[in-house]
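>> received
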Amino acid sequence: MRNLTPNDLDFLSVNDIYRIASEEMEEGSESHGIATRAIAESHGDKEIAKSLFIKFQYEELARQEAFEREEREKLQRKEHELADKRWQRQMELERKEIELAEKWRQLKRQRKLEFNCIERKFEEMERRGVAIGLIVVAIIGAIWFFVYEDKSPANFISSRAAPYVTAAVNTADSAKVSQYRKAAEQGNIKAQIDLGMAYENGKGIAKDEVQAALWFRKAADQGDALAQDILGYLYANGKGVAKDDAQAVVWYRKAAEQGNINAQFNLAMAYKNGIGLAKDEAQAVKWFGKAALQGDAEAQTILGKIYEHGLFGVKKNELQAETWYEKAAEQGNEDASEALVNLEAWLKD
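>> returned
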């Protein structure tokens, strides 16, 4: 017997139920068949048999949906576990890179000290009029430059700059909005987001934050990380929905666990400031780290400050701070560039 849909049930006749019961008996499933069970419990009343069959069929559909939902949740949990393991491996690689960078800086400082010592000897020899000193020091200086100076710490630390890009409807006319609506009403996630953006920005349609939130919610309910992050922002700022920091955190977390960088940063800020949930500095550092590893310059700058000043229970480490500042500065973050200059000046002293 093929699986029946709710639409099939609307057009089912009493004769169809008895036919299905016969098929169940032929298949040897009369003790568990829905039609057979309905007929048995109806005590010969065909209309009751039909009602019972439809009831049992809906119950079976509900059980199947619950089973499929449980399987999806199991799969999502496994994906989250794998994502955490990947993040831990990335952090371990980062630590090793920083250790290499530290060793290199120590070696470089040592070589500079040696070179300064040679310079002082050269000055002493020059005062004595020993011309050979100039040649010796020049040779040693050239060797030092080509052997050591060309090897920048950047060779030991990989760049992870990856600017965050959001989907937005910058320009849209009424025809496009009509197309978005048709696709969105059929469940197309991208169209739902585009329609939400059109309402949010008033592009091609009258601005309506409530409608924008409604369409973002539809896409978020289907598991889209971008829509979930946007919905979190709307709850955090009370745009189109009642302001609710706890709900904002719920949606930020859903998106962050799927790897959305902006949501990871927002979740970290929520933990840092205790907004929408209990303040937890360790969790804040964890989510700043995840965003930073994906190239978020602001998260990298914050991590730099955490390591530079030993904040949030993290052990003070100027070299790690310098590394994160460098990564953010490479992306043009002015705060990171300024902090890097100040830190390097302090390290030289």
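>> Residues 10 and 54 are 9 Å apart (CA to CA).
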